[in-house]
Amino acid sequence: MGGRFLLAILTGLALPAGTALAVPGPTWPEALNEGRQAAEAVLGRTGSETCLQGKLMNAMVSVSDSCDADGRRSTLCTMAEDFIVGGVVPLSDMDVVSKRFLKLAATP
Question: Whole-prediction pTM value?
Answer without folding.
Answer: 0.76
